[in-house]
């Protein structure tokens, strides 16, 4: 039996796999234009497949998009909250992986510690997908790249500006920059900057600066994320440090004319972004949210060896 294809980070698929996923996602999205959401794709490529979805963190987009992805591909999904599993009562991640591999065809896990996803993949005999960890969020970034491509932009040579917290989403954007040849300039306050190891994932295409104006100047795409992640206290000191990095209309005007605004949601209006930007004409966040579904359908197909 060949080793399963896991999708823990973009590097698992590599340049060819990521490109194949994006091309397939664009094709499948366009083929469904005008269809009802519950209609199964014409080829039903995952008929007979079941995906177990483990949640140790709350979710809206990840939960619904993966469930609908499996339905549209002709398969089924099973939601498992960690607190109601033996995993939440002390069973090891390794043992959970071994057991689930006997029941289902694939596992998606959304958790805190990236080491848990790695341990799951090390012991599972079916594909494991990272639905989010404290280190990375590759499924989100594939949706972001799909959103950019869907506007007619090409990835090589783009400038992407990141404002705010040097978090897991930024890590995956930086990794994408190294794979697809675009530049990421992040602006983060002292104490919240990405590690050098994260910047190194960009293969020389990622930098971090202190000034939000420097980061956003001439940017084709502007990205931010919530400053207070799930499970964190609403830290007033962190909010105060972040406020100069808020994306408002004045800052957005310093980007390239027609620049796109992205945010993976949920958004805290008036904190990391103002309402006039998030609801404005440059915002692609609703397309971005929808594209979680389309990108993940193709990630699933890649994991099951159907593309790439």
From TrEMBL:
Name used for this protein in its record: Ornithine carbamoyltransferase
Aspartate/ornithine carbamoyltransferase carbamoyl-P binding domain residues: 5-148
NCBIfam families attached to this UniProt entry: orni_carb_tr, PRK00779.1
Enzyme category, top tier: transferase
A GO CC term attached to the entry: cytoplasm
Assigned EC number: 2.1.3.3
Residues the record lists as binding L-ornithine: 168, 225, 229-230
Major localization class: cytoplasm
Keyword Cell inner membrane: no
Compartments where found: Cytoplasm
UniProt keyword terms in alphabetical order: Cytoplasm, Transferase
Organism annotation: Sphingomonas yantingensis
Top-level taxonomic group: Bacteria
């Amino acid at each position: 039996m060949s080793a399963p294809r896991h999708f823990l980070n973009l590097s698992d698929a590599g340049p060819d796999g990521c490109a194949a996923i994006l091309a397939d996602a664009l094709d499948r999205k366009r083929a469904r234009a005008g269809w009802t959401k519950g209609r199964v794709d014409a080829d039903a490529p995952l008929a007979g497949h079941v995906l177990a979805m483990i949640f140790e963190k709350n979710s809206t987009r990840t939960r619904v998009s993966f469930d609908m992805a499996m339905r549209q591909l002709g398969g089924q999904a099973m939601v498992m909250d960690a607190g109601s599993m033996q995993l939440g009562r002390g069973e090891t991640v390794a043992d959970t992986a071994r057991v689930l591999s006997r029941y289902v065809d694939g596992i998606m896990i959304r958790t805190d510690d990236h080491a848990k996803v790695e341990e799951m993949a090390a012991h599972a005999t079916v594909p494991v997908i990272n639905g989010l960890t404290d280190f990375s969020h590759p499924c989100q970034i594939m949706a972001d790249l799909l959103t950019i491509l869907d506007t007619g932009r090409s990835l090589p040579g783009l400038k992407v500006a990141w404002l705010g917290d040097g978090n897991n989403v930024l890590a995956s954007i930086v990794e994408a920059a190294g794979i697809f040849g675009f530049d990421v300039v992040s602006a983060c306050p002292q104490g919240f900057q990405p590690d050098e190891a994260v910047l190194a994932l960009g293969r020389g295409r990622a930098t971090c600066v202190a000034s939000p104006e420097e980061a956003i100047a001439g940017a084709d795409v502007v990205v931010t994320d919530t400053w207070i992640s799930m499970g964190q206290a609403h830290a007033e000191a962190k909010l105060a440090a972040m406020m100069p990095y808020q994306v408002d209309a004045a800052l957005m005007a310093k980007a390239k004319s027609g620049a796109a605004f992205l945010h993976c949601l949920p958004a805290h209006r008036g904190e990391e972004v103002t309402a006039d930007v998030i609801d404005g004409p440059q915002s692609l966040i609703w397309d971005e949210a929808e594209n979680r579904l389309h990108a993940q359908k193709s990630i699933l197909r890649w994991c099951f060896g159907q593309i790439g």
